[in-house]
Design goal:
Length: 82
């Protein structure tokens, strides 16, 4: 079993739901993806449209078909273990 989040990521029912259902490693994966979305799309987190978009992406990431891929991002190749 993966470790749970220590506290809700934000206030309200959605924060409580995420804390109850999402592990800390999964939350950290979302934060990494969210950061890439913000940086690569040059979004401003204080813009209400950006906040709505990020909430939509968060819901898709955890409860839908997955968040949008980051434009121009390619997964780094890992070297095979020897």
């Amino acid at each position: 079993m993966l470790p749970a989040m220590v506290r809700a990521p934000f206030s309200g029912a959605l924060g409580e739901r995420l804390q109850a259902e999402i592990s800390q490693p999964a939350w950290e994966a979302w934060l990494t993806h969210q950061t890439m979305l913000i940086n690569e799309n040059r979004l401003s987190p204080v813009d209400p449209k950006t906040r709505a978009y990020l909430k939509e992406q968060l819901m898709a990431f955890f409860y839908g078909e997955g968040a949008e891929a980051v434009a121009g991002f390619t997964q780094p190749k890992t070297s095979p273990e020897t």
